[in-house]
Each structure stands twice: as structure tokens, then as C-alpha cells.
Write a structure and sequence with these properties.
It is built from three helices and 17 strands. By secondary structure, the chain is mainly beta. Helix 1 packs across helix 2. The structure holds copper (II) ion. The site of copper (II) ion (CU) has 5 residues, from loops.
């Protein structure tokens, strides 16, 4: 039973490294899918302002607060969230995962805009000031691991005031060698076509656009030589992956659609997080292991720390 449980979770999550046993047990015996979190439909539908997420796994709740409530494109926006445990107590202690106690991803609903932030924690409240570029609908994904608890990835939607421009259609990338800030980055999946529910290794090969030379002096970023976020076209699937060397994690934040479908949540598990981080220089090939949960279009953002700059390389892929 225990072994089955372990195997199920192991294969479901495709961790390349050993999972802490407690997490495996938690995943089996606890709520279905530690990070299987979803919004209340009220807060999804609501405009900017205050919202609660009653569906966080393990009894956790997220209270979101956006200020001002009427968010305007290009103007300062304060994003805050408080995590409460099953007793309604504010959680104040969090595990550091990938160098940070929280990660916050902001995307526009058409996935044209992407921002990866690290809010500060003060008296149990995570908070950060930011802006969004255009009017329209946005989605936030917060990732935290309460001390002694399981990883939580919770989303929250908001809409700015004003009329949104026409959404940018998500276009499949035909060319997987693209230039970003003087670096040619080629996405090389080990599997073509990409298939849902099957582990894939995504390698990003980096070379200097001018000299053509492979880049071998990447600096660590968030405890690894790269970082990827993958979001499905409908913004219902969120995968957060670190390289297979050093440390790696892959997870799948879920959504309203999967609420009440615990049998599907097996791959929505925890972090395979190896402490210690990395040192030295990385490149030219950085590989991430991940599993796309369902077919469809996804956008991938790979982030690399090169010569003091974070380069974000984005690709749209089709998963069959
Ligand atoms: Cu982060």
C-alpha cells in the first residue's frame, strides 16, 4: 500500500530526485494533491480587491488583497496575500524553496505578459509593489510552503479598469532558436511531438548571438542555473521547474476544473528540493524535466542569469 502510494506519486510527479518521505506520505494520505489549489469562483470572477481562496490543500486558505482595488495599467499596484492554516491562524513561517519563501508569477490572460516576483514577508503578509502594462485580465500564481506543511500554489485573478486591448493570440513557435538580449537560446525537447502525461526533458542551449560560441558562464539563479515556468493557454495549468542538475522541481497548480477530481491530482505534488544549491558557472545546456498534464498549447518561460541580467526566453509549444 505504502509502496504503491510511493510509486504512484513518484511516477506521477516524475521527480528525478528522492522525495522527502513525509511529503510522499502527505501526498497519499492528506488532501488530494498538496498544491491542488483553486480559486473560489467568486474571487475569480471578481475584479481587483480582496479575495479568499477556500480551496488550498491541507486546510490552508489564502487571502488576497490588491491595492488599489481599481487596478490601473501602468500605475503602482500592491499585491498582498496572507496564508492561514486550518485553524484560521496566520502562517508566519515558510520554507525557503529555490532561495525564496515565496514566488509570485503574474501573467496576462493571453500570456503575453509575464513577471516573476518575490514578495517580502512582514507579519505574516506577503507583499510587493508592481505594475501591469496594459488593461485587461491577469492571473497571479503564488507558491509557498508553510513550515511543516505542504507546498501550496494558489492562483488569483484580477482585471484592470479600462478597456483591454485585443488579446495577443498565442502563436505556436515554429523556430525554437530565438534570440533574447544577445543570446541565441534554442529549446530542444527530447520528445517530438510533445505528449501529455509523459515526462519530457526540455533543454535550453545558449550561445552568444554575435560569436556563436556556447555560453558556459551562466550564474546561478534561485539556487539553480535556470528556472522555468510553464502555463497552459487557458491558464489553468501551472508548472514550475528547475534544472535536473543540482535541484529540480515540477509541479502543477490546478484549478477549478480539477476541483473534486482527486484521481487526477496525482501529479500535482510537492517539491523535490535538494538543499545546498549550486555554485560555479553553468551552460551551455540547461535541462529541465517536466510533464505536461494535458494536451494543448503551453507557453514556456525559461529564465537564466547571464552577466548580471535575468534573460527570459519564451516559447509556445503544442502538446498532443
Ligand atoms: Cu521565484
Amino acid at each position: 500500500m505504502l509502496r504503491n502510494c510511493f510509486r504512484k506519486n513518484f511516477f506521477a510527479t516524475r521527480f528525478l530526485f528522492l522525495l522527502p518521505f513525509a511529503l510522499v506520505l502527505g501526498a497519499c494520505n492528506g488532501t488530494p494533491g498538496g498544491n491542488r489549489n483553486s480559486e473560489s469562483s467568486a474571487s475569480v470572477a471578481g475584479h481587483a480587491g480582496h479575495g479568499e481562496n477556500p480551496m488550498a490543500a491541507g486546510g490552508y486558505r489564502f487571502d488576497w488583497h490588491l491595492a488599489p482595488a481599481a487596478v490601473k495599467a501602468g500605475e503602482p499596484l500592491q499585491i498582498s496575500y496572507v496564508v492561514k492554516d486550518g485553524n484560521g491562524e496566520v502562517v508566519k513561517d515558510f520554507e525557503q524553496v529555490h532561495d525564496k519563501i515565496t514566488h509570485l508569477v503574474v501573467v496576462s490572460n493571453d500570456l503575453a505578459f509575464f513577471n516573476h516576483l518575490h514578495p517580502e514577508l512582514q507579519d505574516g503578509e506577503f507583499s510587493i509593489r508592481t505594475t501591469v502594462p496594459t488593461a485587461g485580465a491577469y492571473k497571479l500564481f503564488a507558491d509557498v510552503t508553510p513550515k511543516g506543511g505542504t507546498q501550496q500554489i494558489v492562483s488569483h485573478e484580477f482585471r484592470t479598469v479600462g478597456e483591454a486591448p485585443t488579446p495577443t493570440p498565442l502563436r505556436l513557435d515554429e523556430q525554437w532558436a530565438k534570440t533574447f538580449e544577445g543570446v541565441v537560446i534554442t529549446l530542444k525537447p527530447n520528445l517530438q511531438p510533445l505528449r501529455a502525461d509523459k515526462e519530457v526533458l526540455l533543454t535550453f542551449a545558449l550561445r552568444d548571438a554575435q560569436t556563436g560560441k556556447p555560453i558556459t558562464d551562466l550564474d546561478p539563479y534561485l539556487g539553480a542555473f535556470g528556472h522555468t515556468v510553464i502555463i497552459s493557454q487557458d491558464t489553468q495549468r501551472f508548472l514550475h521547474t528547475h534544472p535536473t542538475e543540482g535541484e529540480m522541481k515540477s509541479m502543477d497548480a490546478t484549478d477549478d476544473k480539477r476541483r473534486g477530481h482527486p484521481e487526477k491530482s496525482g501529479h500535482a505534488e510537492k517539491t523535490a528540493h535538494l538543499e545546498g544549491g549550486i555554485s560555479g558557472k553553468g551552460g551551455p545546456d540547461i535541462t529541465f524535466a517536466t510533464t505536461f498534464p494535458v494536451a494543448g498549447l503551453y507557453k514556456i518561460w525559461g529564465q537564466f542569469n547571464y552577466h548580471g541580467k535575468i534573460i527570459t526566453a519564451d516559447y509556445v509549444v503544442n502538446v498532443q
